[in-house]
Design brief:
Elements: H1 10-21, E1 25-29, E2 42-47, E3 53-59, H2 61-71, H3 76-85, H4 90-103, E4 116-121, H5 129-136, E5 141-148, E6 152-160
Antiparallel strand pairs: 1-5, 2-3, 2-4, 3-6, 5-6
């Protein structure tokens, strides 16, 4: 069986964010999330049909807060307050869960096993060691800076297992 896992193009990420948020989004190559970003970041785990870890997505807190606020049509101040307190407020977390779920569409390919969102880990929750290792490892990965118009920007890192 050939390897059907493909890192999504940055333009596909931008288009998905723009379609979901209904506003301009700029995407550029960026630095990967670091170990220092993980305690306050939002991490999504994706599995295949056999429940094997397929991909790990990391959103730096500023990106999660800004995208969550934009998705909920909340004022910029809601994201700023969340970032300042170093945690993702529940109303923003609910929106970020939906964002992570929609991002699954970037991972599914025709002829490949179906990929689904398995879990979203929010700031303050324990991150499994294997997910941490994959998110910080070299390999099949995409590292972007995503800027949501009128809200702000942050890092997005996607690593395929």
């Amino acid at each position: 069986m050939s390897d059907t896992s493909v890192i999504p193009a940055s333009i596909a990420v931008r288009n998905l964010f723009e379609d979901l948020l209904g506003r301009d989004v700029n995407v550029a190559s960026g630095d990967p999330m670091t170990a220092e970003d993980l305690p306050t970041g939002v991490i999504a785990l994706y599995t295949d049909t056999s429940q094997q870890l397929y991909a790990v997505l990391g959103l730096q807190l500023p990106l999660a807060a800004n995208a969550g606020a934009a998705l909920g049509l909340l004022p910029v101040g809601a994201a700023e307050d969340s970032i300042e307190e170093g945690k993702l407020f529940p109303n923003l977390a609910e929106n970020v869960f939906e964002l992570c779920n929609v991002l699954t569409s970037l991972l599914n390919r025709e002829g490949a096993p179906h990929i689904k969102l398995y879990q979203v880990i929010y700031p303050g929750m324990d991150l499994p060691n294997d997910a941490r290792a994959h998110l910080l490892a070299l390999g099949k990965r995409l590292d972007l800076t995503v800027e949501v118009a009128r809200y702000g920007k942050g890092k997005l890192s996607l690593s395929l297992v």
